[in-house]
Design goal:
Pfam families: BaxI_1. With 268 residues, the chain is mainly α. It has eight helices and two strands. The chain has one domain. Helix 2 packs across helix 4.
Length: 268
């Protein structure tokens, strides 16, 4: 955690020629503006990558007279699915790595953003083909929720605390474990019934979707607190990438869950 690693700023002395000592080196510290610039860059990379696979899938599928989605260009569809799969694997790997060490390398952060964009675009095209307008609504909802959480934190209506952190971390571990179990089961062709793929959700699926979406929204409080604390306590500038990565990952995760939740409202 940045907060624990930089409670105190340690700066070593630099030595010149024998008998002379130069001034201690000045370490560039991160600012909130640095996080904002990097977050915009990562979100832009995600969006550009998403447009690529979205266009490929949108051109490769169509809706027949029965309202069913059919593939009209298997080549383009296969390419988009391959890119999405690679993006999903890369994204999962980076996320697991970030649990043990903050992402301060811009290359890793951009690889994650682009990989998630490739996955996000193809899946979004599927949702849009079945429920026209759902992607725009999910994007708008993501922006509104993020803005609302930022305002609640800015005016100290919501703020971090040791108890809040423990609850969020514990819930996050549970959500990750649930997702991994569902993913592994899906690889073996098993449907655990945790998520509705056709939009027709039962009570349990509604509860899970709403719960995860709320967690995604409230997780921004942890990000905002970490960024503010790091900026106020002289964390090195490279940790601006850690803050930007956290916000980007949070926005992507929130979008996924809002997209799923909105699809439930479209069910018969």
């Amino acid at each position: 955690m940045v907060k624990t690693q930089y409670n105190e700023q340690h700066m070593g002395a630099a030595y010149g020629p024998y008998g002379q000592m130069t001034q201690a080196p000045q370490v560039q510290t991160m600012r909130i503006d640095d996080v904002i610039v990097r977050t915009v860059a990562l979100v832009a990379a995600t969006f550009v990558a998403a447009i690529l696979t979205y266009s490929m899938v949108a051109d490769a599928i169509a809706t027949n007279s029965f309202g069913e989605t059919v593939i009209t260009d298997s080549g383009a569809f296969s390419t988009a699915m391959t890119l999405g799969t690679v993006g999903a694997v890369v994204g999962l790997g980076v996320m697991i790595f970030s649990m043990f060490k903050p992402i301060t390398n811009p290359f890793v952060a951009f690889v994650y953003a682009i990989g998630q964009g490739l996955l996000l675009g193809g899946v979004s095209a599927f949702f849009e083909a079945r429920w026209p307008g759902i992607v725009v609504n999910a994007l708008l909802a993501t922006i509104l929720v993020f803005g609302a959480m930022l305002a609640l934190y800015k005016f100290r209506i919501l703020k971090n605390s040791p108890v809040f952190t423990k609850v969020m971390v514990g819930a996050g571990i549970g959500i990750f474990a649930l997702s991994m179990v569902n993913l592994v089961a899906g690889l073996f062709g098993l449907d655990l019934g945790l998520f509705a793929n056709d939009g027709n959700a039962n009570a349990l699926q509604w509860i899970i979707a709403i719960g995860i979406t709320l967690w995604a929204a409230f997780s921004f409080i942890l990000d905002f607190d970490m960024i503010e604390y790091s900026a106020n306590n002289g964390a090195p500038k490279k940790y601006a990438w850690a803050g930007a990565f956290g916000l980007t990952a949070g926005l992507i995760f929130l979008y996924w869950n809002l997209l799923r939740l909105l699809s439930y409202f479209q069910g018969d």
